[in-house]
Specification:
Helix content: 10-25%
Strand order of the largest sheet: 3-2-4-1-5
Shape: globular
Number of strands: 5
Order of helices and strands: EHEHEEE
Distance between the termini: 21 Å
Radius of gyration: 14 Å
Number of helices: 2
Largest sheet: 5 strands, mixed
Length: 119
């Protein structure tokens, strides 16, 4: 079965180092929390707010593997008052876990984005 798995993080500043570090941290934490391997990932869609332009989050993820996984980056919709300096990801994963067993991961300033989800 294929399920969607969400996550997000923020950066303190838009630098290659910060976007790379935080994107990789997010992906690693999602993989660990859900006991996933690269082979479980069908595809990943990353979005970033308009103030994150130093590097594609997908480029950062390629640096830690995921060579066979289709990765795509897109711009987040610029909604007035929305969280700044934010990177989001939607993973499509092969899993036998129920939707209640999936752990979505929100780090740093993004922790409050989806506080309605179980951890």
């Amino acid at each position: 079965m294929v399920r969607g798995l969400r996550g997000a993080t923020t950066v303190d500043e838009d630098t290659v180092e910060q976007v790379t570090t935080r994107s990789q941290e997010l992906m690693r934490r999602i993989m660990e929390r859900n006991n996933l391997s690269e082979d479980d990932i069908v595809s990943a869609l990353f979005t970033a707010t308009a103030d994150v332009t130093s590097i594609f989050p997908a480029t950062a993820i390629r640096e830690i593997g995921f060579g066979a996984v289709p990765l795509l980056c897109a711009a987040e919709i610029a909604v007035p008052g929305a969280m700044a300096l934010c990177i989001r990801v939607l993973l499509h994963v092969h899993t036998t876990k129920s939707k209640d067993e999936i752990h979505h991961v929100y780090l740093h300033g993004a922790q409050g984005l989806r506080d309605d989800l179980p951890d």
